[in-house]
Amino acid sequence: MRMLLSSAGRRVELLNCFRQSAAELDVELTILASDMQPAMSAACHEADGAFVLPPCLAPDYAERLLEICLREGVSLVVPTIDTELVALAQAAPCFAAQGVRICISAPEAVGVCRDKLRTAGLLRAHGFDVPRSAPCMPVSGWGAWEGPVIVKPIDGSSSMGIGIFPDAISAEPFALRHQSGHLVQEFIKGEEYTVNCHFDPGGRLRSAVPHLRIAVRQGEVSKGRTARIGVLLEAARRLECLPIRFAGPVCFQVIVREGRAYLFEINARFGGGYPLSHRAGAPFTRWLLEESLGREPDYREDWKEGLLMLRHDSSVFIGPEGERLA
User: Fold this and answer.
1) pLDDT-derived band of residue 78, with 50, 70 and 90 as boundaries?
2) 46 within 8 A of 8, measured Cβ to Cβ
3) In this structure, are 68 and 176 located in the same domain?
4) Whether the Cβ atoms of residue 269 and residue 81 lie closer than 8 Å to each other
5) Of all residues in the chain, what percent carry a pLDDT higher than 70?
6) Does one domain contain both 196 and 179?
7) Could you tell me the maximum CA-CA distance found in the chain, to the nearest angstrom?
8) In sequence order, which residues have a C-beta less than 8 Å from that of residue 320 and are 6 or more positions away?
9) What pLDDT shows up at residue 70?
10) Which pLDDT belongs to residue 181?
């Protein structure tokens, strides 16, 4: 089997999870990778082959990716970053017609997830607890909110471009400078979790693994601990009932306060903290390979609670001729 990890960047841990899963399944797996600058991507150097692609927002991004897949015999594509999801979700039927599966949710699900205002509105309409949210506008539109607020990009990721303020008045200048692409949201204090979910190709939730975000670096968890918490597992199950269809890996972020779970973000891709779920006993990568090979996956929910992940930096060394050094 041949697969491709797109926008691979530094997702070496995810690549290794696929390799481990393939070894357990006794499948000979070739992992290719793509990036704007493969020479500067650790995951591209760790892969079995790497390819240059234009920026994700380029009009020919999906077309160029399909060319690589057909030329290299790729049957599975796994996206890794938010900015490529809309184009790939729309292109997925075209890829499928050529025998290439993109591991991605339906276009309407991706569209909602890429817009935090739409996410909040959909979740609230279906009975989820959600922080109050509003477009950026003069404070008269949301100034009655009490307590701290957060202003952040509607389609942001990696905690970039956000501002946290003690009240509406102090947030207004920042909000008005970013009206076109930001939202204002009630800042709820509590314990923050990510819940990694796996949905089968039919949209059925097969596994949900919450972990406490103990420490975060550039929006990605660097220290986390798995936790089997009822309100989080129930929230994951309820995602299955939304009028949008998820497939493959999905993760959502949530604040737990006084026994209530406030959802504020859904990502229709592998979360940066997925390796913790994998090590805890929820091997989404194995299930994706089994699904793609036409095998019946061994979906299970007996993952280990209380598993602590402490991340550290590692290095990839490249020689003067571009060769990967041991």
Assistant:
1) very high
2) no
3) no
4) yes
5) 98
6) no
7) 62
8) none
9) 98
10) 84
CATH number of the domain residue 275 falls in: 3.30.470.20
- Please check whether residue 292 lies inside any domain of the structure: yes
Residue count (the chain): 326
Confidence class for position 145, pLDDT limits 50, 70, 90: confident
What's the pTM value of the predicted model, to 2 decimals?
0.94
* Spatial distance between the Cα atoms of 315 and 82, rounded to a whole number of angstroms: 25
- DSSP annotation of 299: -
> Do the Cβ atoms of 65 and 77 come closer than 8 Å?
yes
Per-residue 3-state assignment (H helix, E strand, C coil) for 210-243: EEEEEEEECCEEEEEEECCCHHHHHHHHHHCCCC
Query: To 5 degrees, how large is the angle CA 231–CA 236–CA 237?
Result: 95
Residue in 63, 53, 56, 67 with CA at minimum distance from that of residue 91: 63
Domain containing residue 56: CATH number: 3.40.50.20
| Domain of residue 63, residue span | 2-104
Same domain, 164 and 145: yes
Number of domains in the chain: 3
For the chain, the average pLDDT equals: 94
Is 283 a domain residue?
Answer: yes
Take residue 217 and report the two structure tokens written for it. 């670096």
Same domain, 286 and 195: yes
Distance between CA atoms of residues 44 and 264, nearest Å: 32
Which is nearest to 195 in space by CA: 130, 126, 263, 286? 263
Question: pLDDT value at position 137?
Answer: 78
pLDDT band at 159 (very low <50, low <70, confident <90, very high): low
At position 262, the amino acid (one-letter code) is Y
The Cα 116–Cα 162 span in angstroms is 13
Residue-by-residue DSSP string for 127-186: T-B---EEES--GGGTTT--S-EEEEETT--TTTT-EEESSHHHHHHHHHHTTTTEEEEE
Q: Classify residue 16: in a domain, yes or no.
A: yes
121 part of a folded domain:
no
Shared domain for 198 and 181, answered yes or no, is no
Kindly state whether residues 213 and 178 are assigned to the same domain.
no
